[in-house]
Specification:
Blueprint lengths: L1 H17 L11 E5 L4 H12 L3 E6 L2 H14 L3 E6 L7 H13 L4 E4 L14 H29 L2 E7 L10 H23 L5 E7 L5 H7 L10 H13 L4 E4 L2 H8 L4 H10 L4
Parallel strand pairs: 1-2, 1-4, 2-3, 4-5, 5-6, 6-7
The protein binds NADPH dihydro-nicotinamide-adenine-dinucleotide phosphate.
């Protein structure tokens, strides 16, 4: 009984703490959002815009970025600019950060969110695809973090890394993607320790998301599973709040936190449940 009460009290405190978010805290903030031409990144850009931030967005498709930047301006962004970049190219992550810093005159918040396309299917033995996806979903994050950290130190800024439940728990059909997200969690989790040990003024948040209703995710899972998908706009707001309140780790939707907690308690039953959640 005592344990149940303690768990309840901790959850309540966590919820109340999250609610301390003040949108004014990001007004005028200089923000770079990656993977912002569509999906969750686009929604992140719109929320920052509504809160009056100065936003630079990046992805590959210029036409889509132009549209998102124009929407950001109408929603109230102090600035809404874009830089095109292909994160599969080794020089682009650093170049995009440099250009964003030039355009904004510094940087307060970096949101690392982009991902490359990958099939939702049994692994077919294609090692090159795993390597390419590592560059896109993981190594480019490392390169951008490396370029941005000195600038974020000057502004006592924040870095937000968008990760996935699939970087915590393995499931079928996502081997290359899961590998990149486990790498992201491992690298940035280690970086959190190092920033704390150096008493750095940069805050680093890792957000873990469950299934979100972006077009790309919905197209992939169709016919494989009918799990509930949560709204991209809510996920985006969650990401912003987690970063602004300097949470180390955050989970959306909230129940996936408990999935992570219980992950290793009953591995046999966990794997049966996971495998039976998919049609094959
Ligand atoms: P989308 O596929 O909808 O968007 C991906 C974004 O990345 C697009 O803006 C795309 O733009 C950009 N991108 C793709 N390839 C490149 C490239 N080579 N260089 C630069 N940018 C590129 O993804 P989601 O919005 O669904 O996911 C966003 C984040 O949320 C990811 O980190 C993902 O892992 C995480 N997440 C999502 C979940 C979901 O169910 N949707 C669940 C858990 C986590 P463009 O094509 O113009 O380059």
């Amino acid at each position: 009984m005592k344990t149940v009460f303690l768990i309840f009290a901790v959850c309540l405190m966590a919820v109340l703490w999250r609610d301390t978010f003040d949108p004014e805290s990001v007004r005028n903030a200089r923000v770079l959002v990656t993977g912002a031409s569509t999906g969750i990144g686009e929604q992140v850009a719109y929320h920052y815009a509504k809160m009056g931030a100065q936003v630079v967005i990046t992805a590959r498709r210029e036409y889509a970025l132009q549209k998102v930047a124009a929407n950001c301006t109408s929603l109230g962004a102090q600035k809404a600019l874009y830089v095109t970049g292909d994160m599969s190219q080794s020089s682009d992550p650093e170049r995009v950060v440099r250009m964003a810093v030039e355009q904004l005159g510094g940087l307060d918040i970096l949101v690392l969110n982009h991902i490359g396309s990958t099939p939702f299917a049994m692994w077919n033995g294609d090692g090159d695809h795993v390597r390419e996806l590592m560059q896109l979903n993981f190594l480019s994050y490392v390169n951008m973090a490396s370029a941005a950290l000195p600038v974020l130190e000057q502004s006592a800024g924040s870095m937000i890394v968008v990760s996935s439940l699939l970087g915590k728990i393995t499931t079928p059909f996502v081997g290359p993607y899961a590998a990149t997200k486990f790498a992201v969690n491992g690298f940035f989790g280690s970086m959190q320790h190092e920033l704390a040990m150096q008493r750095s003024n940069v805050s680093l948040t890792i957000t873990t998301l469950g299934l979100i209703d972006t077009d790309s995710a919905m197209d992939k899972i169709r016919g494989y599973t009918n799990m509930t998908a949560y709204p991209a706009s809510d996920a985006a707001l969650h990401i912003i709040k987690a970063g602004a309140t300097h949470q180390k780790e955050s989970f959306y939707p909230g129940y996936i936190y408990f999935a992570c907690l219980c992950r290793d308690w009953f591995p046999f039953f966990r794997d049966i449940i996971i495998q039976n959640s998919y049609t094959y």
